[in-house]
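User: I'm writing a short report section on ligand binding and want a predicted complex to refer to. Could you take this sequence and zinc ion and write out the structure as tokens? A short remark afterwards would be nice.
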Amino acid sequence: MSVRGSGVNRGPRRQRETHRSGRSGWLRAAVLGSDDAIVSTASLMIGVAASSASKQAILIAGVAGLVAGSMSMAVGEYVSVSSQRDSEQADIALEQQELAAEPGAELNELAMVYVNRGLEKELAMKVAEQLSARDRLGSHLRDELGIDRASLARPLQAAWISAASFASFAAVPITALLVAPASQRIPAISMLSLVSLAALGAFGGHLGGAPRGRAALRVTIGGGFAMAVTAVIGRLLGVSLS
Ligand SMILES: [Zn+2]
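Assistant: Sure. The structure tokens for the complex follow:
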């Protein structure tokens, strides 16, 4: 991560990264976390249910999975977004130093960014001067490094969103358990979970501009496989340990 922002052609690379994790970044993270939440919680509950455990035991497994998963998502997001924020702040500090030390060279550098984007040299210089007059640091951060100060990485927000997202989607298989009749617990948990996965997969594909059907199919098959494996293991363990 610390490599970002150093090196000669950091501009374009930095910009692409920011773009990818930009405004739709948290939304995509929420959708990805929700797949995790459904697959892991449903699998956990199905594994326990397949061992012929009581409704109470399955419920405890589901709730424990929800809490553990939410906490682990929050910590993971906090750590990863914090290091992103650290590298943004290091970039900003470096740019401030450079602006103070070599204002002339920095102005030329900014003008060259606009030349590379297709402006004539004279016009580029004029643009650089006028933008610098208004907000010098902001112009350099935006056009040279691709950092928008209005959307800097927010570790706590990211942690909170992913934990909340995990918890709400882990509630899907738990709800299925609560409403299903005793004989239909495993089919109810898996069906409701797979339908939700398919819907989320289609939505995620839509966000990423990918074919929706294919995205939905992939996540549904993956989720179904995970549930089947834990069901078999739960069943085997239930038989051998009882
Ligand atoms: Zn600069």
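A remark for your report: Residues 95, 98, 106, 109-110, 140, 144 surround zinc ion (CB under 6 Å). The mean pLDDT is 86.
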